[in-house]
Inverse folding.
């Protein structure tokens, strides 16, 4: 019984790998996934059976682990969408590479079986002999499981969160085991260039420096993000400096841009700074007076939490306390969401559309959560994706190292 189950898993694993390779090759030629239905069905069966295969190896010492452990592990990794490999392998080659990996593991298993089996490529009765249970084998597998399961659960959580972030930002923000990456996308249409650069309020100094020096001269306009406050509604200066200093990160507000500031009519605000050849920069955001009272209160709460507290935990407590006080006011929460995202997105798109006839290159360095909306509008206007450029904005190792250093040098009484 156990031999038949193991052979069934081996056949399904190989079939899944072979059909996946064929499907990827057909897709490369025709542009269509011709075998997607049988491929998905087999992938589900293999993933479903991989868990009992792991259990079976722990209970039955006779099953060759060097054959089935790589297969079951690869199947479970496939259930995690092979994270984090999609972040490092080009999308066009990813499916074929991972399908070839599965087929290769399956063929290696067959090769190992052929050395001991009476059958050409399956487990024979001669390979499944003797007592099936061994306390030593079971205890060893249980010990390995105790170590592996927490890691697997952690990978599942990180993979799910990474997939959520990438989907929420339409690929403009990506999380890997090394850090947080921002993915710039460059679009083109009729000789016009549109650079969509996702930003983050605090990040590595090198990240902001690279963006600042990448601004091209000529007929270029930078659409700046940043809500203005002409009527003085903001009670506290909005700043992420405290958070940045704690993690050893720089602030976006200090990013150097060698550009000439212009009005919304694209005229230099300072005639003496005409800056021949330098890119222009214009405010493409809204003013605080244009949003609802609930949004003003929310921004004031967030500004106070970030600027007047040295502890991230205290800042989070102040923020969540205010949010909890508004949770039953659906209109207020709806207004906040509309003002912070939709209203500002529409302002950026309106400025982009207005500026297109005047400039050859438009650069939009806005927050990553705004980018999906702006990209969709660019595609609606006929822009076509040309290139992508991924930059490391936050290194987890660097940030954690700086945080540890701060904690070691801070007197206990001051913590």
């Amino acid at each position: 019984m156990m031999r038949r189950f193991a052979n069934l898993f081996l056949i399904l694993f190989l079939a899944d790998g072979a059909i996946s390779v064929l499907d990827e090759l057909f897709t490369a030629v025709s542009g269509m996934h011709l075998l997607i239905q049988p491929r998905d069905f087999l992938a589900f069966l293999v993933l479903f059976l991989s868990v009992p295969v792991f259990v079976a190896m722990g209970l039955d010492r006779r099953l060759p682990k060097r054959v089935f452990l790589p297969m079951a592990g690869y199947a479970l990794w496939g259930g995690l969408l092979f994270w984090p490999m999609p972040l490092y392998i080009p999308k066009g080659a990813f499916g074929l590479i991972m399908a070839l990996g599965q087929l290769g593991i399956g063929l290696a298993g067959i090769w190992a079986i052929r050395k001991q089996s009476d059958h050409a490529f399956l487990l024979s009765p001669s390979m499944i002999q003797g007592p099936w249970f061994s306390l030593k084998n079971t205890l060893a597998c249980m010990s390995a499981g105790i170590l592996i399961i927490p890691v697997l659960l952690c990978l599942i959580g990180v993979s799910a969160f990474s997939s959520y972030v990438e989907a929420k930002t339409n690929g403009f923000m990506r999380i890997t085991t090394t850090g947080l990456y921002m993915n710039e996308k460059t679009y083109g249409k009729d000789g016009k260039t549109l650079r969509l650069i996702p930003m983050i309020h605090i990040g590595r100094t090198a990240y902001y420096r690279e963006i600042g020096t990448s601004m091209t001269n000529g007929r270029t306009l930078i659409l700046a993000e940043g809500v203005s406050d002409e009527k003085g509604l903001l009670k506290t200066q909005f700043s992420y400096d405290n958070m940045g200093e704690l993690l050893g990160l720089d602030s976006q507000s200090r990013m150097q841009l060698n550009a000439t500031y212009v009005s919304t009519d694209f005229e230099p605000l300072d005639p003496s700074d005409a800056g021949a050849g330098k890119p222009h920069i214009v405010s493409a955001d809204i003013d605080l007076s244009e949003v609802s009272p609930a949004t003003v209160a929310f921004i004031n709460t967030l500004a106070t939490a970030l600027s007047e507290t040295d502890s991230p935990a205290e800042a989070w407590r102040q923020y969540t306390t205010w949010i909890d006080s508004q949770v039953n006011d659906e209109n207020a929460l709806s207004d906040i969401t509309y003002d912070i995202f939709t209203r500002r997105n529409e302002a950026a798109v309106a400025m982009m559309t207005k500026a297109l006839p005047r400039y050859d290159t438009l650069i939009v360095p806005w927050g990553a959560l705004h980018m999906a909306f702006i990209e969709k509008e660019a595609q609606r206007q006929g822009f076509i994706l040309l290139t992508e450029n991924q930059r490391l904005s936050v290194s987890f190792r660097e940030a954690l190292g700086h945080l540890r250093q701060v904690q070691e040098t801070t007197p206990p009484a001051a913590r």
